[in-house]
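pinned: reference chain
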Amino acid sequence: MRPTATGLAVGGRLRPSQRRGRLSRSADFDRVFRNGRSQAGRELVLYVFPRGEEQGEARVGLSVSRKVGSAVERNRVKRLLREAFASGAFELPPGTDAVVVARPDAKALAEREGLAGIARVLGELVARASGCDEAERVAE
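pinned: its C-alpha cells
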C-alpha cells in the first residue's frame, strides 16, 4: 500500500505514524495495570495512569477477551469503544494512559444501547477517575 495525498494508505488504513492515541506495546499495558488506578462498572473497567508528560496526548488501550463473545461481537465492542473516545464526549487529561477492559456484559450493552450506552458508561468511569485524581491533588 502506498500513501495517498490525504495521508491515508491505499485501502483506507492509517499509517503507523497516524495511529497516535493508542497503547500498543505489552509493556505499556502492564505499566497501566500495575501502577494505574481502576474504576469498575458492570460492563467496563477503566485503568488510568498518568505518565508524567503533561505535553503528550492521552493514549487508550482496549482489552476485550473471548469471554465477551465471538470475534464479530468483540470487534463490535472494540469499534464502539474507539468511537466513544473519538467522539470527544469526554477527555482524559493530557499525558494519561488508559486501558479499558470490557466485561462480558459489554456485549449486551452494545446490543441494547449501541454507541450511546457504551459512551454513557465510559463517561461515568472517566468522570469517576478524574474525580479521584482531583481528590488526591487536594489531599496533597
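why pinned: The radius of gyration is 16 Å. Residues 1-10, 14-18, 134-140 have pLDDT under 50 and may be disordered.
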